[in-house]
Amino acid sequence: MMTNQIDDNTIVWISSRGILPTGGASYDVSSLCDKFESIEITGLSGGGRRPAGEASPNYSPTLTTFIRNKRDKLEKGKQFDEELKKWLDSDLADNDKKKENIYFCYLLLDPNYLHKPLCFTNFVKSIFYVGKGGKKVDRPLDHLKETKLKMKKDEAHSDKTQKIKYLWEEGLGVVLLPFDLNVKEAEALSRESTIINAITLPNLTNKRNEKFYENHRVWTSDEKELLGCHCLENAFKTLKGKKIVPIRLEDLDKK
């Protein structure tokens, strides 16, 4: 069993609401973290651990449900994922350029939320930008270089570069997370789009959403959002399998 990093009063509070068995039953702390955070996100908490002044994220209804009942949604999300890949492979078969499997998705993460135990809910909270890379494999670094240049020239910042600047000034860094590697451009763009649909633009520093390719049928908003949840789950698994190393301003000179 993992070390308990959530205070006993919190455990009692969750147990009293029927989320955990009482009587000293064992539990996994990472799973407990997701259960407790889901109460906060869906506005059911009477108290909470969220810092004062921090608003509850207004995610899509599908992502909010996914956080609360992930296991019930994973299989359906996987089916949409397989459907996307299958029809894109077929639809783009005659286009050599779009057929190249050189693209990937990536996320920019705020390390403030990536503490132990690492749980899915805090992972989603940490995301402030969703992007797509291709032949330029260091595309995620471009955002940091852009911020550094704006700081040097004392230029106005976008929401994205302002967020990066803030993290640097706080003595922190930015975590870069590439995932879904070696896919077609249309697939990377579609995945990026569904993630933005799930998290919603107001919770991100992206200026706009990207194109979702849907030639064989029209996807509903709920289906796109659930596919985005599945993509987020894959990204979360990728993060858990790597060492988290935030990149600070001074680190850029080493890149």
Describe the protein's architecture and organization.
- With 255 residues, this protein is mainly alpha-helical.
- The chain has two domains: 1-56, no CATH class; 61-254, no CATH class.
- The chain has ten helices and three strands, in the order αααααβαβααβαα.
- Strands 2-1-3 form a three-stranded antiparallel sheet, with helices on both faces.
- The longest helix has 22 residues, at 70-91.
- It is globular and about 50 Å long.
- Residues 1-6, 21-27 and 41-52 have low confidence and may be disordered.
- This is GIY-YIG domain-containing protein.
Averaged pLDDT:
81
User: Please, how many helices?
Assistant: 10
Query: Could you name the ranges where pLDDT drops below 50 across 5 or more consecutive residues?
Result: 1-6, 21-27, 41-52
* Total number of strands: 3
* Strands in their spatial order, largest beta sheet: 2-1-3
The helix-strand sequence is: HHHHHEHEHHEHH
SS class: mainly alpha
Gap between N and C termini, in Å? 39 Å
- The count of domains is 2
Outline: globular
Organism: Rhabditophanes sp. KR3021
Protein name: GIY-YIG domain-containing protein
